[in-house]
Structure formats: structure tokens, C-alpha cells
Amino acid sequence: MSAWGQLLRLETRRLLRSPRGRAVSAALFVATAAAGLLGARLAAAHVAAGQADLEAARARVEARMRGDAPLSPVETALWEDTVVARGVAPLAALTAQDLAALPDAAAVRLTHPPTALAARAERSPAAALLGTFDVAWLLSLVLPLAVLGLGYDALARDRARGNLAALLAFAPSAWGLVTARVGAVTVAALVGLGPGLAVALAATGALDGPLAATDALLVLLLAAAAALAFSAATVAVSAFSARPGTALVAGLVGWAVVALALPLGLAAFAQAAYPDPDPRPELDATQAAQSILTKDADRLVAEEARRRPELDPERAADGVQSVLRFERLRAAAHLRRVQGAGFERRRTQARRAELYRLVAYLSPTTWLSHGLAALADTDPEARQRFMAQAEAFQSQLALHVEAPLLDRGAAPGGWPRLTTPPDADRTPALLGAALYAALAGLATALAARRLDRGALTPAEEDA
Amino acid sequence: MIEVRGLTKRYGARTAVDALSFTVGPGELYALLGGNGAGKTTTLNLILGLLAADGGEVRVDGVAVGPGARPCAVYVPEVVALYPDLDPLETLALFASVAGRTVSEADRAGALTRAGLAAEHHHRRVGTFSKGMRQKVALALAEVQGARSVVLDEPTSGLDPLASAQLAERLAAAKAGGAAILMSTHDVLHAANLADRVGILQAGRLVAELDATGMDAAALLAAYQAHAG
User: Fold this and answer.
1) B92 neighbors B103 (Cβ within 8 angstroms)
2) Predicted pLDDT at A285
3) b/e for A225-256, b at 16 or more Cβ within 10 A?
4) What percent of the residues of chain A are helix, what percent strand, and what percent coil, each to the nearest 5?
5) What 3-state class would DSSP assign to B23?
6) B92 touches chain A (CB under 8 A)
7) Tell me, what's the ipTM?
8) Residue A19's closest chain B neighbor by CA?
9) Which positions in chain B touch A18 (Cβ < 8 Å)?
10) pTM tops 0.90, yes or no
11) Fewer beta carbons within 10 Å, N or C terminal of chain B?
């Protein structure tokens, strides 16, 4: 074994023998496994709820199509209770917070048009901080804290005790010591995190199949890279601190800025840059259209015919009742307003998702959560894609129902299905891992340079 | 061999070490004797390259020392903390591997035994050791790392009489092996017993340099009082 390998082994052994090291590793394992198991249950519940909603909606519409009174053209416009299921990617269990806060992640209630709710990153700071306990939340918020707990005194305690001078007396450079300590903190974190993640991934079913296993490996790579970067940053803070207490306070302040203030500030910025449009015009128009379309057409026509004989529907050249034609035109005008408002809303959401994708790279903790969300297909952009698919599905569904009603015969094929197979975007995870590696290299180099420049004792005058 | 020439360190307007010059030859133990604030620890930090000097030069085994160029010397601080969760064999392995060397367990055990640490303690964690036992581990580092120079800061502080006697034996053995040993102390008795030469520090200046061979503690105390009093 090389000298550096031996050093890494001894540093890791030293850390894992300490009560603090054992406690942090064990806590990471328990928390990660628990978050994965809870997420898997949540994702399974969403899939089951979506499937149940889909079957119930289909049964309702089919019963009406088979009934004595066939579905009228007016009734075909009523899709507000139509629910379609969305396939949930296995890795979505790792970002269960998005699922818990977004009932339409598993099932989309097809109002007219489909609506999307904001993802976790787009919601309020309180939602991001106090949301569901899941692996993405754990890794982006708790992993940096755990690593800080493992390594805040990696160099500061030696400096305070005067050990650094003795340790480095024969070393040509501090590089070997610093890299070994970064490695030891990383390994100690991974001793808990790795098995915990394996349990979580196994619970989600993400280990089944070669493609899913590739994504699972990518999750492990991203988590390991994050642990390495957080470890290097912690050791660098320790290298620049005279005492362990100073390093701990500096690390906590850094964590608060990087893991809390920066991501929440960036999310708030994205929200402020593209605020949601006023929903009232869309809701008012929808309500007006529905109010018109749900009127009793026969009663309305009879009343209108008595009141205004000149509009006798029997006199219409095409045989269509004039009043009904008028009402349908009114409803169509309202629906066009609804579509216009919906377009504006979707455009705002798309721009916000794009902005969020860019600002997510400004904080090291969001590299991780963003990469996981892209792998799990729960990131804001994936939701935008899903909404577009849902609208296309809605059109297919309308044609399928209207075809027999308009005497065009049965629609070809069976019931249309909204199928959204997992469409993992691996680029953010790979980019995140590369950024973490770069951050780790930079922090390690800074720490080694600090020691090589002679900062081996507390800066105090002891003469 | 440790050579100090015109070494100077200032903190603002105050001069902590003032044009200090002395030499510690191979097989010699040199004691820097002085009261609190005399500049002993600052001098050692300058020699170890832990502080940047404002003037003068330090050479250890012929190599110039500075913050970017540390000396190949074993340093035994006043509080020998080491790593409480490692045993002495692992401690020696760790220190050697930081320097890029691997040393066999047999060699490490031999160094510990020669430093006075019985084999029964080789697999106990250092956290359970007394200061005297930790000092033995630190002195074993000198042999493992092949150091020709040893720097000790207040080595007898807090040691019981038996541990002090054992330390004296170990230092005598290191001297006999040709090591150049520099120690700081404010303990006149131990300086007289251990040192070949004594430098008396007063306000950062070397006010006297005495040949301590054959000098007893009373004579050294009288000389110290005459120069530093």
C-alpha cells in the first residue's frame, strides 16, 4: 500500500473510531434509508391514486355513452372530472417532496385546460424548508451539515494543539495530508450515506433493469461527488480557522448561506421575475362558459321561442335552434378567453422553469437537488413537458367521445391513454457531479496552500 | 545541526526575538532558558518555520528554514496531544505516511521500545496515555522519521520525577545517536541535568550562553539570576 493510501486508511479509521464519527455515519444511514422508504411509499400511493382516478373517470364517461340519453355535444364539453394517470418514474421516490406537494404529479385533473402546480423549488421558502422528508431534501440540506460535523476540526484542532507543525515537519507539502483528510471525511460520510442510498434505491425499484440501474448509479455518483465537495469545503474552512470552535461557527454560517439563503433567494427571484398571472379572468371565463353550457337547452329554447317568436328555431335554415347556436357561440367566446389566459399562464411557467434551471447552478446544494429532480422527472421543465402532453391527450379524448355522438362511427383504436414514460434528463446530474469535483479540487488546493504558507499554529503572539 | 544567525521577530513596535544567534551541534543538547514571555516559544516557532522571521537566518542540517521550507526536525510540543483514537504503532505510521514514507510495523515497534514505551502499550489507544508516555511516542517519531534534529518545547512541564528521569535517558540516548537537540524550558533543575549548553533568554535577547557540563542546578540558578534577574 502506498504511503498516501496508508494515510487515508489511518485517517478514516481515526475518524470512524471516534464517537462523533460513528454517530454521524449511523445517523446518515438511518435518515437516508428512512427517507427513501417513505418516498417509495408516497410514490406508490400516487401511482395507485392516479390509476384509480383514471378507471373511475373512464367508467363514468362510458356509462353515459351507453345510456338511453346519449351524451349531448354540450355534455361532451364537460371534462372537469376527467382524470388521467401519469407514470411516476422510480427515482421520483427520491424527490417525494415534489410528489407530496403536487397532487397532479401522479394524476392530472383535466379541467379546461390542464393546470400545473409549482414545483418545490418554485414554491415558498417555508415549503422548501419544512416540506416532506425525502432524499433530495436530506442530501441538499442535511448532508452538508453532517459533513461539517465530521470534519470541522480536521485541521483546526491540530493547529490549536500544535500537532500540525509536528505532523508536517517532514512532509514536502501539505497536499498529501489535506487530501487524505478530505478523503477520510468523505469516506466516513459515505459509510453511512452509501448503504442508506442503496436501501432507498432498492425500495424505489430503481435497481431493476439496466436503464434504471444506470440512473441509480448516477444518483450514487452525484451523492459521492457532493460528499467529496462538502468535505473539501469543510476541511478548507478548518484550514483557515485558528480553533475548532471558529471552524464550526464559520461552517454553520457558510451552510446557512449556501444551503438556505442562496437557494431560497434564487427561487424567490425566479418567482418575482415571472409572477403567476392573475387567475381570476381565466376562472371567471371558465365559470361563465360552464354556466352557459350546463343550462337546460330545451327549456331555454322553449322559453326563448315563446318570448321572441322571430327566433323560432324551426325557421332556421340548417335546422339548428338559433338560441342554442347563440348560446354555444357565447360559450365559445368565453372558452377562447380561457385559452388565452391559459396560454399566458403556461408561458410564464415555462419562462420561470427556464430561469430556475439557470439559477439552480448558482448554489452547490441545488446542484444536487436539481440533478436528482431531473433524473426523477419531477423538475419544473419536466412538468412543462407533461402539461403539453396532457393537452394533446385531452384533444384525443374529446375526439374519441364525440365521434360516435356525431354519427361518425367509433373512433379508431381504444381509449386514448396519457402515457408519460420516465424521461430522465441525465445532463444536470452529470454536470452537478463535474461541478462538485471542481469545487472539491479548488477547496483542497486552497487548504493545502494555506498550510504550505506556514499557517500551522494559532496566529497569536506567544513571546 | 541547528544554526541560528541574527534571528529577529517583531510584533508591531515590540521586538519578541532580537538578533538571536546560537548553534546546536550533532550530539549536543542545547537548552533555551528563560521566564514567561522571554521569547522561547517564538524562537522555536521561527526555527520550525511556523513563523516568518523579520531578519536573520535559520539552517537545520544545512538547509535554510522559512514558512515555505520547513526543517526536517521532530517537534515535541509542550502539550503532546497526538491522536487519542490511534494506538502508538498507528500514530507512527500516520506521521511517516504524511511524509510520504511507509515504515514496517516491526520497525515502528522497535522505535517505540527504544523510546521507552513497553510493548504492552503498543496497541493501546494514545488517548489513555500519560504525558510522559505520549512524549515517548513523540520521541520515537524522531527515529522513525530519521530526524537528525529534535526540538522540544517545555518537555519536562507536568512530568512526574520518574517520567522526567526516563525522558533524560531517552534524550541522552538520542544525543548518543548524534541528534542535535534544542529544548526550551524555564526549569533550571532540568536544564542543568540535561543540557550541554544553556542559552539564557531575556526579552528576546540571548544575554548569556553557558557551558552546563558539570554545572549543578544551584550554579546555573545563580548564573541565571545574575543575567536575567
Assistant:
1) yes
2) 77
3) bbbbbbbbbbbbbbbbbeebebbbebbeebbe
4) 75, 0, 25
5) strand
6) no
7) 0.76
8) B85
9) 85
10) no
11) C
Q: How far is B189 from chain A (nearest CA, A)?
A: 23
Structure confidence at residue A410 (pLDDT): 60
Chain A partners of B61 at a C-beta cutoff of 8 Å? none
Tens digit of each residue's pLDDT (9 = 90 or more) over A125-140: 444 455 567 898 889 8
Place of cell 541535568: B193
Q: Residues A367, A435: contact at Cβ < 8 Å?
A: yes
H-run or E-run covering A156: helix A156-161
Closest Cβ–Cβ partner in A13, A172, A463 for B39: A463
Secondary structure class of A399 (helix, strand, coil): helix
Sign of CA dihedral B72, B76, B79, B85: positive
Residue B4 CA to residue A381 CA, distance in Å, equals 68
How much is the pLDDT for A411? 61
Lookup: cell for B116: 521507552
Query: Rounded to whole angstroms, what are the CA distances from B77 to A187, A455, B20?
Result: 30, 16, 21
Q: Which three cell numbers stand for residue A296?
A: 337546460
As given in the structure block, the three cell numbers for residue B147 are 530526524
Instruction: Give the β-pairing of B55-60 and B63-64.
Output: antiparallel
Which amino acid is located at A401 in the chain? V
* 43-62 in chain B: CB under 8 A from chain A: 45, 48-52
Task: Name which of B17, B75, B79 is nearest A463 (Cβ-Cβ).
Answer: B17
Q: What is the pLDDT of residues A120-177, one digit of tens each?
A: 445 444 444 555 678 988 898 899 999 999 999 999 998 887 778 778 877 878 899 9
Q: Find all residues with CB under 8 Å of B64, minimum gap 6, and list them.
A: B57, B58
In 3-state terms chain B splits into helix, strand, coil percentages (rounded to 5) of: 35, 30, 35
A334 and A292 Cβ atoms separated by less than 8 Å: yes
Q: Edge-to-edge, what's the strand order for the sheet holding B63-64?
A: B14-24, B2-11, B55-60, B63-64
Domains in chain B, please, with CATH? 1-73+186-229 (3.40.50.300)
Looking at the complex, does the CB of residue A460 fall below 8 Å from at least one CB of chain B? no
Q: Per-residue confidence of chain B (229 residues) as pLDDT tens digits?
A: 899 999 999 988 889 999 999 999 999 999 999 888 888 988 998 888 878 889 999 999 888 887 667 777 888 887 777 888 899 999 999 989 988 889 999 999 999 998 888 999 999 999 999 888 888 888 888 778 877 888 988 888 777 788 788 888 888 888 888 889 999 988 888 888 889 999 999 988 999 999 988 888 888 888 888 887 6
Q: How far apart are CA A202 and CA A172, in angstroms?
A: 46
Task: Write down the residue that cell numbers 425499484 correspond to.
Answer: A205
Put residue B152 in one of left, alpha, beta given phi > 0 → left and psi -120 to 50 → alpha. Answer: beta
Number of CB atoms found within 10 A of residue A264's CB: 18
- Is B11 in Cβ contact with A171 (below 8 Å)? no
